[in-house]
Design a protein that fits this description.
By secondary structure, this protein is an alpha/beta fold. It folds into two domains: 1-35; 38-215, Rossmann fold (3-Layer(aba) Sandwich), CATH 3.40.50. The chain is built from seven helices and seven strands, in the order αβαββαβααβαββα. It has helices at residues 2-35, 44-50, 71-98, 109-118, 128-135, 153-158, 202-215; strands spanning 37-40, 53-56, 60-63, 105-106, 139-147, 171-180, 185-195. Strands 1, 2, 3, 4, 5, 6 and 7 form a seven-stranded mixed beta sheet that branches. Helix 3 (71-98) packs across helix 7 (202-215). The longest helix is centred in the N-terminal third of the chain and has 34 residues, at 2-35. The radius of gyration is 21 Å and the shape is globular.
Length: 227
Amino acid sequence: MKNFTSFLFTLRSVNHLRSFKILMVFMSVLTLQSCAKIYYSPDAYSVGRKEKTIAIIPPTVSIKPTKNANLTALKEEEKKESINFQKEMYAWLLKRKKQRKIKPKIQDIELTNAALVKLNYPEKSLSSDELCKVLGVDAVITSSFNLSKPLSEAAAIALGYFMWGWRWGPEVYASMSIYDAKEDKMIWNYDHKYKGGLGSTPTRLVDRLMRHASSKMPYEKKNTKQK
């Protein structure tokens, strides 16, 4: 009888833990959807439907330094995360295209980056219009990610971010914009501040951000009206 009671207690604990995890995921998604600020130009969807090729520019990533931070190492980490974010954005847009939800072709990021390296970008500043011309695309997606600390736990420890509460993940402020070359203007912008919660990982954090942001871009074929 005692063993059976223990079994029931364990079973209830497992069920409670599952329910708690589901609740945490739900609250994370709810927070993401309710706090994001999204801008559409009046003609965003009609312009987006005319674009044939778009390019994803490597994001600008900044990590808040600690008091005794190694700024050189921090700069390298920012470059690394820039490529990681670009890859995640590229993967999500390819996924949307495979699902037939967006029409434009997404330029291979290796081609994009190779062309930008030849121009010494981002050391040499280029406007969105210039980026479109040198890449031969109809639009570019530019973005910035401000992090309170590195996404990687190993990098966080190595760069001196190991402290109480570090497992809760970083605060991330993400901003993404779409610039259309023909219209010579920004047609879409997405701003969101997100704080990693219990059990969050770099992969989950980026996944949640892009799951929501990519679905709100003016390329979704199912959206006939702007929202």
